[in-house]
Amino acid sequence: MDVSKGRHCMKKVTAFLMILILYAGLAFAVEKARDSRFIAYDNGTVLDTQTNLMWALKDNGRDISQGNAQSYCKNYRGGGYSDWRMPMPDELAGLYDQNKTYETDCLIKVHLTELIHLSCAFVCAFYTNKGQYFLDFNNGGWRKDYQRTLGCRVLPVRSSK
Fold first, then answer.
1. Domains in the chain, please, with CATH?
2. Which of 137, 147, 148, 150: disulfide with 110, CB 3.0–4.6 Å?
């Protein structure tokens, strides 16, 4: 066998194995933690076992405008998935849990599972052309920015079905 053909064949096999390892890592997430309803995985996702929605492990980390929030979710690739979107108001409200509390990076207490990390309390929901809606995870109340000037955080979501 020609040595150069052997090297060429070995390069192809190595490339194939690297691609296989990459895709296997995306397809087989390992459970990191769980509570009564949520399962956190090592690929940066959290599964809500009641709704079958998959959430990003953490929000985007800073205030974001309404236009950029949708773009952020559309381009988000957490866990290797490409079908992320902004949450609908009822989906986001479903995360609020008065019985669970932790302090965010901005030193505000929020009420939801500790498996999802919020950096601050206001999280954007899908909005209409009539303004941006966001949920205050400190008190569970909805707020609307009629002028569309305020920023909030965004937490991408996708269907796990």
1. 30-159 (3.10.100)
2. 137
